[in-house]
Write a structure and sequence with these properties.
The complex is a heterodimer of chains A (287) and B (86).
Chain A (H helix, E strand, L loop, with lengths): L1 H25 L10 H20 L6 H13 L13 H15 L5 H12 L4 H5 L11 H11 L3 H14 L7 H20 L3 H26 L8 H14 L4 H11 L3 H14 L9
Helix pairs in contact in A: 1-2, 1-3, 2-3, 2-7, 3-5, 3-7, 4-5, 5-7, 7-9, 8-10, 8-11, 8-13, 9-10, 11-12, 12-13
Chain B lengths: L2 E4 H10 L4 H8 L4 H7 L5 H4 L4 E4 L6 E4 L3 H16 L1
Antiparallel strand pairs in B: 1-3, 2-3
Helix pairs in contact in B: 2-3
The chains are: A mainly alpha (287), B alpha+beta (86).
């Protein structure tokens, strides 16, 4: 375990600053809190956690896999600065290709292509649909990156991310809960199809999945009842819509605003929990 | 023994330790003090190594898996003794 963690930190030490700088440049004119640099850092943290769990389960994680996964995680959604379309993977792959051509000559062409493919196909349903039949298949780069991305759709973070991107894609609020729960179920099913053998890890993710599903189930009920309550998921959704979509505020500004202005228990609790989930990236050193 | 704790809970334990506790723990366990700091979420890996701490996104600042609870148990012991004296 110590050896794997040391290897991960060595690779992070080698790449993080450069990746961070590259993404800051790519995202400098884009306001998209659901898919910003922090999202890419969290996806890497999920991917890292997944690899650690697989290592504990007896699989061998080599240095090249860690390096490829780190780069792929950091580029997978950069294409959203070009298009908000679900097929943004192609544009992300172009950013990644440029980065690899300019910065990492030590990787072989085959390794670079593997990273580019993982970035391009990270949201491809046909890739996720392939069942895992052997333990080693759990180490496929494509699968690790797309699963790590799926895991950032869970919890309270998942709630704000879905609301922002779906509304910005023009999905009507009335349609939103049904579309989210459908997408979320698919993501979680893909995760369990591949990694349910990691029992304790899967249990932790299931709790986060239920937090998100519960929110959108209640939101659907609020919408159908035409609720005016300020103590509800619908009210939280209205705040997120106003601040993130209409005013283009950051998520931090949104949370600060909500905690200052909302007195009802549900929004207060929601935004407090959201802030504490978002704090995870502050624990990552980027020099 | 592995323990799962939230990052903010671990930070609260660290914040409740009296001054000098990190050094006391390091001395008792014959470890580098940076290693003890890394156990509580520090990131000086060059000096302190990784000490079996890893963090993943989740509630309350994220989920921390600690591969060994010796340092945490010692921290709880120091906090309990401090409260007794106070």
């Amino acid at each position: 375990m110590e050896t794997l963690l040391n290897t991960i930190h060595k690779i992070e030490d080698k790449h993080l600053y450069l990746l961070y700088s590259s993404l800051n440049t790519i995202f400098k004119d884009t306001r998209l809190p659901s898919h910003d640099l922090q999202h890419h850092i969290r996806v890497w943290l999920h991917c890292r956690g997944l690899m650690i769990e697989l290592h504990k389960a007896g699989l061998s994680i080599d240095e090249t896999l860690i390096e490829k996964a780190l780069i792929a995680c950091f580029f997978h959604d950069t294409g959203l600065t070009v298009t908000l379309d679900e097929q943004h993977g192609y544009s992300s792959a172009q950013f990644c290709k440029n980065y690899l051509e300019n910065h990492l000559s030590i990787l072989t062409n085959a390794e670079k292509n593997e990273i580019i493919t993982a970035v391009e196909l990270h949201d491809d349903k046909s890739v996720k649909a392939k069942p895992v039949t052997k333990p080693d298949e759990m180490l496929q780069l494509n699968l690790l990156v797309s699963t790590a991305d799926d895991l950032d759709a869970l919890g309270f973070i998942g709630v704000f991310r879905y609301i922002e991107i779906y509304l910005k894609r023009g999905i009507d609020l009335k349609e939103l809960p049904r579309k989210v729960t459908h997408n979320l179920r698919n993501r979680f099913t893909s995760f369990t199809n591949a990694y349910s053998s990691l029992h304790r890890y899967a249990d932790r993710q299931r709790l986060r999945y239920h937090e998100t599903i519960d929110f959108f189930t209640r939101l659907e009920a609020d919408i159908s009842e035409n609720s005016n309550s300020t103590d509800s998921p619908l009210h939280v959704t209205k705040i997120l819509k106003q601040k993130l979509v209409v005013e283009s505020s950051s998520i931090d500004e949104t949370i600060t605003y909500a905690l200052k202005t909302q007195t009802a228990p549900y929004p207060s609790s929601f935004f407090t929990k959201l802030r504490s989930e978002l704090e995870v990236t502050t624990a990552i050193p980027i020099y | 023994m592995t323990k799962i704790i939230t990052f903010n809970e671990l930070r609260r334990v660290k914040d409740n330790l009296p001054d000098g506790s990190m050094q006391i723990i390091a001395d008792r366990l014959n470890m580098n003090v940076e290693a003890v700091r890394n156990y509580f979420g520090g990131t000086n890996y060059k000096e302190g190594g990784t000490v079996g701490f890893h963090l993943e996104p989740g509630p309350d600042g994220g989920i921390v898996t600690l591969d060994d609870t010796t340092i945490l148990d010692m921290a709880y012991e120091i906090i309990a003794k401090t409260k007794e004296i106070a």
